[in-house]
Amino acid sequence: MRHRGLNGEFSGTKILQSSTSNTWLRAAPTYRSRAGKPSPCIEARAGGRKGPKGRKGAPRLMMRSDGYEHLGSALNTDRAKPFPGPPPEQGPPLRVLPIGGLGEIGMNCMLVGVKDRYILVDAGLMFPDFTDLGVQKILPDTTFLAKWADKIEALVITHGHEDHIGAMPWVVPALDPGTPIFASGFAMELIKRRLQEFNLWDEARFHTFAMREKFELGPFECEAVRVTHSIPDCCGLILRSEYGNIVHTGDWKIDEDPIDGDVFDREAWEQIGKEGVSLMMSDSTNVLSPGRTTSESDVQRAIVNRVLSHQGKGRVICTQFASNMHRMESVKKAADAAGRKIAFIGMSLNTYLDAAMRDGRAPIDPRELVPVSQIDACDPNELLIVTTGSQGEPRSALNLASRDASHSLKLQKSDLLIYSAKVIPGNDSRVMKMMNNIAQRGPEIAMGRGETLHTSGHAYQEELDEVLKLVKPQHFLPVHGEYAFLCAHAQLARESGVQYTEVIRNGQMLGVHHRRNGRQVSSGSMHLIGEAQLSLLYNDGNKGTGTAEEMAIDERNQLSVEGIVIAAIDVMRPKIKVSPKDPEFEPGQHRLRGRVRVTTRGMWVDNGRLLKKLHQSAENSIGRLDPEASTAVIERHVSDVLRRVCKGYNNRRPEVVVVAHEFDPRAGMAVSARGRRSSQAPGAGRAPAGAAGASRGARQAP
């Protein structure tokens, strides 16, 4: 796994300069669409591309409603590379360029086009692993999208999971202001809420479609086809063009008995298979799993039975993915069967329920929920608590409760915890630690495959094979999964009768021909026709967004392992300046002296022995320098000495920061200051938590 349209006009007044860059911002302009509806935003003027009408389409730096600049360098088009592929009239007409989602789980984002006209399918994010310190979100390369926004005629969303819509606050500003955006009803409600937080919602450019509806989408006629998944209102896409048809399944499974009654539309997939499909792209997440997925209805029965088994014994606590409205409906049915009231603990549960309410598909009336403040007053035998934290997120309600650190949820020995979720790979140790903490507090825990308390939203092998045989594509491209998953899915497609398959990586452009001879489809061709140089972008959960280099990811990792040494030096020069080579030179009177303070973070200091050695080595090295040596020379020299001491003492290579001040003993103050560090250190802050041998506070030698 890696760990890795429409036109408008602007009006505005006040000009200000960004504090984070040398970019000049036009403050509080208003974008007005053709419909005449204003949408507030901020547009950065820092050069950049020309828009389709000749307007200077520089990166637009939007502001969150709370005032944070969330984009960082996400729209810095200066580093974007040329658009890949041959000229429009040369090479295959059907073209696909994945921006994310191939060779990884998450960050689904793909350009699909005809010649030089493209649409963007999904705008998802990916969550970091433990090596991405200080990072909360990983985003697709929006600098590339911003650079070539004039080629992108629309954005379409297949469903509302974060790995498909989570990057929209960064992707939407990268597109031209009038680029239309399409989604189903439930996904649109989630998108609306998210973009309103960032002051990016413009009603005029967002369009909701129904299943089986056909609508114009850039160079394609698009038809949305119902699929079943672990979130409501999911669709696959049929993209028709004069050069052939493309199918993009989105995330899917075949649920024969869905909770909401929205069945998988086999008829539509069979129909497009008869019509002819040039290229099919399909979800590869569970390609290594044999058989078929369990129906959500089976999970519902298991949850109901488990809740009923705890009658008269105490509270029931259920943790699930907040977006899974089907699971929420199963919990509601179990609560009704057992005569229990429901309480939510976790903001995201209310967020998704609110979106479902506005879309008319809420499984629970929010007015029936027990307020968190009244949980302790309820009869334990009449209460079912739904909580977030199934992945052991540090600040989630369940994780806090496992450590007795939650103000909302106090675990009791009489509780039953139903774990109705999957442990996402990479979260295993964190989840197990949380479950161990819960077990030590006494509640009964129900989890595991044997309980049938969870089912995947992604198709298993038999379902993948079935849809391949329904669609009968001429060419097949596996998407959405690790590289090994993509290879296995390509092999499955060949075994299912698909003649042409290809496995590519993010940034590689695939071209497809589909030639027709009457009703007979002759052999086509599919091959790589170019490659874009893409970069991952990292967001720290606030306004910090940039590349790995800009966000100092490698440096953070080094600090977490090696620690940091900071030396502050008061440089005291002799009153009478005599060169050390002069016969009259006396070390006590004429040598350069420095008062050194050494501090370490995140390092083993051997009960102060290493600190003492660092302090002595720094002072001695200063005395050997020419009294006329500049502070820059002193800093560089002491930095080299401290690095050698650390390397020789315990074979570590910490970050070393040295700051030297000119100090006048008579005045008792520093008269000038500057600093030097051994490499591009972020400063003298605390090393990240978890560093080997990290000290609680500063380790300092005076």
- Helix and strand content put the structural class at alpha/beta
The beta-strand count equals 38
Instruction: Please tell me the overall pLDDT.
Output: 85
Which stretches of 5+ consecutive residues score pLDDT under 50?
1-68, 517-522, 673-698
The first-to-last residue Cα distance is: 46 Å
Describe this structure as you would to a colleague:
24% of the residues lie in helices and 25% in strands. With 702 residues, the protein is α/β, with parallel strands linked by helices. It folds into three domains: 103-290 and 459-545, Metallo-beta-lactamase, Chain A (4-Layer Sandwich); 296-451, Rossmann fold, CATH 3.40.50; 553-701, Ubiquitin-like (UB roll) (Roll). The strands form nine sheets. An eight-stranded mixed beta sheet has the order 15-14-13-11-10-9-28-31. A seven-stranded mixed beta sheet has the order 16-17-18-19-20-26-27. Strands 22-23-21-24-25 form a five-stranded parallel beta sheet, with helices on both faces. It is globular. The two termini are 46 Å apart.
List the helices and strands and how they pair.
Elements: E1 9-11, E2 15-17, E3 24-26, E4 30-32, E5 38-40, E6 43-45, E7 49-50, E8 56-57, E9 94-100, E10 109-114, E11 117-121, E12 137-139, H1 142-147, E13 152-156, H2 162-165, H3 168-174, E14 181-183, H4 185-197, E15 206-208, E16 214-217, E17 220-227, E18 234-241, E19 244-248, H5 266-275, E20 279-283, H6 296-308, E21 316-319, H7 325-338, E22 341-345, H8 347-358, E23 383-387, H9 397-402, E24 416-419, H10 428-440, E25 444-446, H11 461-471, E26 475-479, H12 483-495, E27 500-501, E28 508-513, E29 516-517, E30 520-521, E31 525-531, E32 537-539, E33 545-546, H13 553-562, E34 564-572, H14 587-590, E35 593-601, H15 609-623, H16 631-650, E36 655-664, E37 669-677, E38 699-701
Parallel strand pairs: 11-13, 13-14, 14-15, 19-20, 20-26, 21-23, 21-24, 22-23, 24-25, 26-27, 34-36
Antiparallel strand pairs: 1-4, 2-3, 3-6, 4-5, 7-8, 9-10, 9-28, 10-11, 12-32, 16-17, 17-18, 18-19, 28-31, 29-30, 32-33, 34-35, 35-38, 36-37
